[in-house]
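If you are new to this repository, start here. Below is one unmodified record pulled from the training split, so you can see the exact layout before writing a loader.
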Amino acid sequence: MGETKYFDEMLNADGSIREPYRILGDWLDGQPKQALKQLSQDAETIFRRLGITFAVYGSNEATERLIPFDVIPRVIAAQEWRRLEKGIEQRVKALNMFLWDLYHSQDIIRAGRIPEKLIVQNDAFCPQMMGLNPPKGIYSHIIGVDIVRTGPDDFYVLEDNLRTPSGVSYMLEDREAMMHLVPDLFHKLKVAPVENYPENLRRTMESVAPDNCPGNPNLVVLTPGIYNSAYFEHSFLADQMGATLCEGQDLFVDGGKVYMRTTLGPQRVDVIYRRIDDDYIDPLTFKADSMLGVPGLFDAYRAGNVTLINAPGTGIADDKAVYTYVPQIIEFYLGEKPILKNVPTYNCSSDSERAYVLENLEHLVVKEVHGSGGYGMLVGPASTKKQRAEFSEKIQARPDNYIVQPTLALSTCPTFVGKGIAPRHVDLRPFVLVGDKIRITPGGLTRVALKQGSLVVNSSQGGGTKDTWVLED
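And here is the target side for that same chain:
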């Protein structure tokens, strides 16, 4: 096999600079290596002071780590962003319609467009949600869509995160750090702002408050607590939008309504942005031994006395096996062709496709249907013979438990690595809010694979982040 050619987001094939990067390229040319090194150290100081860490499970080192931050921003042209925005909006609309249908009349199953067993036998499907009408018909209010780029006009959706997508605090803090570090660059470029995200989140939450909500809705962020890997984000978002950060024990249900314990007595709660998985939110309805949830919460939700963001059962729409049907889902509900492409995906339940996969594992990426964070996956080109043999056995034992995709030629962006500036692979997670309207923050979180040649951008696997600059016209 010849060497794979990657799309360089800054440089044309002849080495000239692409237009969106022209001003940044000139600026980089004028920066001695020492200056970039100093900027990186200053950035690290800022993040240490803010205490932005994430927990790493199963590592022998200290469990709290700073996510590495790269000081060279990623730039997206205005017209590129407009196309992405349209594609993302189309996708989240269709997925919310799909969730409504699944928990009501299941027309898409009856029409034979998606197999029934893929839904009803799926752990992410929540039968308790059948027939329940969430406020404004919205199931997933906060969505992170993972997008990769392989060419000037080629964007693919890698996955949709409709349960409890994380990372928005890094997007906001990366921007704040960059505004502090390189204010001169912001003066030269018209960069779309991201800092109104908390305000937009607040508006979105208020817009889906229960109909019987008296006065201004009381908003809460429900966290599993300080030992959760994204606890920093939970407290940061609550603080930024003026909501109260609560753990399960701070809330109780009385007379079908949810209350928060306060020093001034019980206070009614109207909207809960929960960062706790479905199984743990209510021990009376879901996992009986959960210490994280609120007994009776689901009944209060079912009665229409509180809104849960995101709704239980949304995970069925971001299930990796359901992902392969998203193009059909868009066509079924909207009658439109998908604007953003899915990554071609092999179905291991099909004998011929499974045979192809098993013969070509060294060129493919295998993902566990319920895996996340870069765990439970095999990146063929970077794998050992032993790892491929193990995955081959797993796929043959449980073909429906894995999806397999070609190794994508992820685009690269200039990145400051100890020795200087070098291309590194990136992906993008834009954040979408769905309430009285759809609000998409321009840009999102760019994750970067810091190891040379690596395609795995997850922070749990050694990836870092960059600020994402969407240029305004």
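Two things worth knowing about this chain: The first strand starts at residue 54 and ends at 55. The first helix runs from residue 22 to 29.
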